[in-house]
Write a sequence for this structure.
């Protein structure tokens, strides 16, 4: 497939942001890089400012903001708002704060846009996977839980900012959109603090702020079947980029790869794609769209991207072939 912004490609920033070093905190001249474990992944901030002390305070402000979002939206925290929803929303509407309410509503809108490929109720089945322990739901559990994957079972009510489930056993998880939201919020914090050149990354989701002081940021798409190998390097300026891949959290059993990107149709890991990367102006959308395109597959996924003027994508299929959205041009053969 031929391509849209000729110099714009997507990335898997969990692997590449070539500007980062491996140490937790680095300051060179006016550039500062810092890394912290948050949201079940590695969060990175890399920024420039004339004052090193101000740069350090700005990076810390980003980590503080992401910690706040994690406390609100993590299903692993029993006292989070989303955990309260999962516990009680099948019995009655659960009032939540504006932030969680709006992100749930936006998630449901994206479900409509993607015809259910993006579905925050995937966790009705997804909760039964344990990728560290190499466990997946048995047939009985899958059969009982699968009907609960249906975004239409989630009913937000604007009058009291509450969320209700229409069936017992429904469970929501914002894992396909919350990191994009977090890095978008991180960049908003940096702008407020006078930072003009930065990157905030959480796993495979990243928001680039400006350029790298007169040069584009160089990012890359990981080879899904070769650790630390970059398939494609691309220059980007002031973009959001997200990659979803079957190599991020997975285990193998009897020759089958069980990964964390669950198909809402089957309740099992989506197949046919190794990775999907999306570029666009908003990390919330690129995060959700990378998951959606992965689930939809090459043809349907890129047809969706073709309807969204501000977004582009690159998909690597199960055979390792690379496909581009209409607005991207494949690199010239050497």
């Amino acid at each position: 497939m031929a391509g849209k912004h000729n110099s714009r490609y997507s990335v898997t920033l969990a692997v590449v942001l070539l500007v980062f070093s491996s140490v937790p905190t680095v300051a060179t001249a006016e550039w500062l890089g810092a890394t912290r474990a948050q949201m079940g992944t590695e969060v990175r901030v890399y920024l420039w400012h004339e004052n090193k002390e101000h740069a350090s305070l700005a990076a810390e402000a980003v980590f503080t903001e992401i910690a706040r979002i994690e406390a609100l939206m993590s299903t692993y925290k029993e006292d989070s708002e989303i955990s309260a929803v999962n516990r009680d929303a099948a019995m009655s509407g659960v009032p939540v704060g504006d932030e969680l309410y709006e992100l749930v509503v936006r998630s449901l809108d994206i479900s409509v846009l993607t015809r259910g490929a993006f579905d925050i109720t995937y966790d009705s089945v997804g909760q039964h996977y344990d990728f560290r322990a190499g466990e997946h739901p048995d047939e009985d559990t899958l059969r009982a839980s699968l009907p609960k994957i249906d975004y239409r079972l989630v009913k937000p009510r604007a009058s009291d900012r509450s969320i209700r489930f229409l069936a017992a056993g429904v469970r929501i998880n914002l894992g396909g959109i919350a990191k994009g939201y977090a890095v978008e919020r991180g960049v908003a914090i940096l702008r407020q603090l006078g930072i003009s050149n930065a990157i905030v990354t959480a796993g495979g989701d990243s928001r680039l702020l400006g350029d790298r002081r007169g040069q584009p940021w160089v990012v890359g798409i990981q080879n899904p079947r070769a650790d630390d190998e970059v398939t494609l390097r691309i220059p980007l300026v002031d973009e959001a980029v997200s990659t979803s891949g079957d190599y991020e959290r997975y285990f193998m059993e009897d020759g089958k790869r069980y990964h964390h990107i669950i198909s809402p149709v089957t309740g099992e890991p989506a197949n046919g794609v190794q990775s999907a990367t999306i570029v666009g102006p908003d990390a919330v959308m690129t995060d959700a769209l990378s998951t959606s395109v992965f689930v939809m597959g090459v043809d349907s996924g890129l047809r969706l991207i073709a309807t969204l003027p501000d977004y582009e994508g690159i998909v690597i299929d199960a055979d390792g072939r690379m496909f581009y959205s209409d607005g991207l041009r494949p690199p010239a053969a050497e």
User: Anything to note?
Assistant: Residues 1-25 have pLDDT under 50 and may be disordered. The radius of gyration is 19 Å.
